[in-house]
Amino acid sequence: MMEKENSIFADRIKNLGTETAFLVAAKAAAHAAAGNTVYPFHLGDLDLKTPENIIEATYRAMLAGKTGYNPNAGIPELRQALADEFNKTRKTSYSLKNVSVQPGGKPVIAKFLRAFMNPGDEVLYPNPGFPIYESLIRFHGGVAVPYGIVPSEGNYTFDIDGLEKSITPRTQLLIVNDLHNPTSAECSKEERGKLAEIAVRHNLMVLLDEAYFDIRYEGRSASLVSESGMAERSVILYTFSKRFAMTGWRIGAALGPERVMDIISTMNVNEESCTNHFIQYGALEALTGDQEQVKENLEILRKRRDLCVEMLNSITGVSCYRPHATFYVYPDVSEAMYNKGFSEYEPFLDAVLKNTGVSMCARTHFGSLLPGETGKNLRLAYSGIDLSRIEEGLNRLKHYLER
Ligand code: PLP
What we know:
- The protein is of the alpha/beta class.
- It has helices at residues 2-7, 21-33, 52-63, 76-89, 107-116, 131-139, 160-165, 189-201, 258-271, 277-288, 292-313, 334-339, 345-356, 387-402, and strands spanning 39-40, 99-102, 122-126, 143-147, 149-151, 156-158, 171-176, 205-209, 234-239, 252-255, 328-329, 358-359, 361-362, 378-381.
- The chain has a 7-stranded mixed sheet, with helices on both faces.
- The longest helix is centred in the C-terminal third of the chain and has 22 residues, at 292-313.
- 47% of the residues are buried.
- Residues 44, 104-106, 130, 177, 181, 209, 211, 239, 241, 247, 252 line the site of pyridoxal-5'-phosphate.
């Protein structure tokens, strides 16, 4: 029976992965439905409001009749605003022809792979990392080759030597998520230089996932696309989701060489026709309008980061870097897990949820362990939980882990 059931699907379906953080969310929801308090640290969604000026601009656009099909690459005003934004922040020289508006940042991943990857091609991707990379590489017939994100001075960093050692004649593509989910790792100037040199030398096309570029509390974000030789080989994933608290609006963009954008926009013709019309006017307001509420949201996130880092580091057996960007922390909990008698994540997370109500993700939600990897890490997102609940939840976690 099962065999017959399976046979109705195409072969590639067995390679389709998922975002396992949603499975953690389902467990948390069941725990809450049973009448328990849940402290939601698991999903990278925001409980902060989309700025009002963005909502108003969108509403005005709807009333003005911006409700029809529109150009498959996006409305020219938004494409130009994105090109201007990148030229200002990433030292590119883009015009609107280098921009293809998309219904979210995520759609850029599959479109990039379909544009450049043949079956059997090898694609380097970060592990731990956003699980959709591995899922879509395998789904489209590629070979997913992981590179590590490793502890370093003051923060996690990219294992660039390991990455280079994994390159073979079949390696075609490199995926880089600088300002990284789940670890908050970021490249130094020197590391960006090294990555660019490797990409050029091995003639790799690069997907630069910059979803968290603007979620930054100190310093300034810089992009790999600004390095020599990178503009012609980079496709950038841009999203309004995190920066403007617009995760459910589904609006983002691909940016890169014009001939690549033409292919990507032709995929839009085939798959979506175009991105939602009136929402693009909201996105335009997001980039060009008042930034007061955006700044306020960032300030809220900064306070949450400070509290999370401080409280996590106060727990025996837990150590946590203080990232300058993203809304994730990725503490090492090896000792705390050992002290509680756990060697596997799943029973540990279940016990924590049951005893404290704290719901979070673990290393294994972001890819399978790499050879020789022994440490134990959790990922806590502080984007969807306020300061008082962070304090309450992490106090409970502390009491449980130290009991
Ligand atoms: N890339 C990374 C690393 C992410 O963490 C996310 C969302 O969590 C995305 C891309 C996709 O974001 P969206 O499709 O909402 O733009």
